[in-house]
Design brief:
323 residues, alpha/beta, two-stranded antiparallel ribbon, DNA polymerase, domain 1, nine-stranded mixed beta sheet, Rossmann fold, 2 domains
Amino acid sequence: MEEKESKKKEDKTKKITTVEELPGVGAATAEKLALSGFTTLMSIAVASPGELVESTGMGDNVAKRIIAVARSSLVMGFETGEDLLKKRELIEKYKTGSHALDTLLGGGIETSAITEAFGEYGSGKTQIGHALCVNVIRDYPDAEVVYIDSESTFRPERIIELAKGAKLKPEEVLRQIKVARAFNSEHQVLLAEKVEDLIKNGEKIKLLVVDSLTSHFRAEFIGRGTLADRQQRINGHMRTLLKLATTYNICVFVTNQVMSKPDTFFGDPTQAIGGHIVAHASTFRMYLRKGKKGTRVAKLVDSPNLPEGEASFIVETDGIHDI
């Protein structure tokens, strides 16, 4: 009797560390959860019962029980500012090629964050994306880059020019860039989710470029009647990107389209697509516009720790440089 009681106590105090160890979760259920993205205790702890029911077909009471056990198994406490400061020491900043632009961004484009660049056509958004791909591989020779292309703007010929400017072998640089063409918004969302699989398979992903973020959503959801659905889908997509950035300490650089506000009588009428959803989800927001004599001007319009400011740069054959 004493042995049975001690075993029961051991079972109660045994710490659950994997999804498979949750009560009521067998191999088949764990597989269904994994296919829906519930691969960790944290992902289940923050899920709603309805999401688990929809993913696996389990009963509502079973889903509530699984979530409760997952939450009780996690240490979901607070961290001190000192702990977060130590984590911030792992943040890396990738160079664009322009010292002025890097200075505006606090030393470069950060990892563990989403940096959004929005502006009209020809303002330099895609050029910065291409330059980042090459510069990251230059500074981290074993790094790999993922480029999700929704507007057919990725050009290997441009990468070759930039690689030569960085004194790199173009064929090796191209080999380290994984490009995926997104044909619609659902495909784009799926590609972003698959980046995590690449990382888990051992790929050393340092940078994820999405060019552009809102192109498909803008084309597929037309009219005010679809606005709420569009914004909800964009929000989910941005949360996936932010999760990738913060979980794996990678840099996420997204470009965004703009529109002109007809009711603006004074100042610049240019406004980014995606509204407040994209604005709040982006860690850093940079507005690009054309300057004089072929130059480009970047304005930092939102940052959690940096002041607003502007920087001018020029796009040349071998890269992005100061004027």
